[in-house]
Amino acid sequence: MMEINFKKYILLITYVTLFLLSGCVGQKEDYEPDPKLETEVVSETGDSFFRRVLVTEFTATWCVYCPDMKDALGKLTLNTEGRIVEMAVHSLDDMSCEEGESLAQSMDISAWPTAVFNLDPLLKTGSSSEIILSSLAQDAMRLDRETCGIKVSSSLSGSVLEATVVVKTKAGGDYTVVTAIVEDGISGFQAGRGNSYIHNNVLRGILSSNECALEPGGEHMVRIDSELDSALLGKTLKMVVYVLNEPSHTVNNVVCTKIGDNGEYEYDKN
Questions:
Q1: CB burial readout 96-126, b (16+ within 10 A) else e
Q2: pLDDT at 189 > cutoff 70
Q3: What three-state secondary structure class fits 158?
Q4: FRET label pair with 120: which of 6, 46, 175, 176, CA 20 to 30 Å apart?
Q5: What is the mean pLDDT of residues 102-107?
Q6: Angle at CA 246, nearest 5°, toward 255 and 215?
């Protein structure tokens, strides 16, 4: 009898250890982040395109700890003043979508919550520590490839969304342009927070994914003509457009715009 109890004790310790490790992927305890990233931007001309970081939060309504990460990411977004674009990818709940589940699989997500910066598997964490999240954001800003410029214009007529996405690079290279649609202001259940929790930046689907090879100084245009699901009509929708470096498939740059806006290239202010 004592031998059986001892084995159960060892098994329990193993489970607890694995649980704690699952929430600590990518942590960097010795990092001391800068107070703020440089954030000045102009929409005219300049030497470098304004660069943002895509933070994809893999979350779920049944996940008790997910709101803690959401709160920490919200503070990070405020502190960086325009450098962060959030996208919440739900799993196994009523806000999940097929494209989100595929994205979670490609990122090898096995614990919730998990935040991935620029869809880079090396910049992934299950921690809600503001220091760790800020550290990863700083790492994501350090790009070894010229930043692409992105401009988006869109309109919604009835259920038909029409959009034009233009990508420009000074250095040239191979890229993939991805256009996603996200929703704000969804009131519903969240474990640990009740039945009136507000979910924002929720991925509702991928509208397009286009590969392109750009010459230095070249532009690539993507035209979108998509009929939205009737369940999305009348909702608060935004478009998240991000450019992936190839072949690494990590994010080069990202913008988030309201449907109906007409954007221009943005440049860092000298």
A1: bbebbeebbeebebebbbbbbbbbbeebbbb
A2: yes
A3: coil
A4: 46
A5: 96
A6: 85
AA identity, residue 11? L
Q: For helices 66-80 and 130-141, what crossing angle results, to 10°?
A: 50
Kindly indicate the confidence band of residue 2, based on its pLDDT and cuts at 50, 70 and 90: very low
Give 146's pLDDT tier (boundaries 50, 70, 90). confident
Q: Are 37 and 138 in contact (CB under 8 A)?
A: yes
Closest CA to 120 of 96, 136, 97: 136
Structure tokens at 127: 């921690």
What pLDDT is stored for residue 81 in this prediction?
81
Of residues 167, 119, 171, the one with CA closest to residue 145: 171
User: What's the whole-number mean pLDDT along residues 27-56?
Assistant: 59
CB 52 within 8 A of CB 266: no
- Which of 89, 115, 114, 92 lies closest to 103 in space, CA to CA? 89
